[in-house]
Amino acid sequence: MEMRGATRFNVLGAGTIEFDGAEINCVVHDMSILGAALEVSGSRNIPDHFTLALRADRQRIPCHIVWRKEGRMGVEFDWVA
Q: What is the CA angle 55-42-20, rounded to 5?
């Protein structure tokens, strides 16, 4: 059963997770107006709130983590709240 509040689209784009002066590369696997699924190594060291920088269009989106699995995480964009 689909639990997301909006349809997500496959993206497969490069991004950067930014927090406290640190930058961690990630791959954006799918995305909607509400959030995205990210592939990233070492997701345990990433704080719950950070900025996602999208390389393709240079957007910077504040977000927070809603789920974590080994190598992947789901985020919700904070402009939704």
A: 60
CB neighbours (10 Å) of residue 35?
24
Residue 72: count other Cβ atoms within 10 Å of its Cβ.
Answer: 15
Is the domain covering 9-77 a CATH 1.20.1260.10 domain?
no
How is the chain split into domains, by residue range? 9-77
- 24: closest CA among 1, 43, 7, 2? 43
Distance separating alpha carbons of residues 35 and 79, to the nearest angstrom: 10
**How far is C-alpha 44 from the geometric centre of its chain's CA atoms?**
14
- Whether 52 shows a pLDDT value over 60: the answer reads yes
- CA–CA separation, 37 vs 32, rounded Å? 9
pLDDT digits (tens, 9 = 90+) for 9-26: 667 789 999 999 999 999
Residue type, 67: W
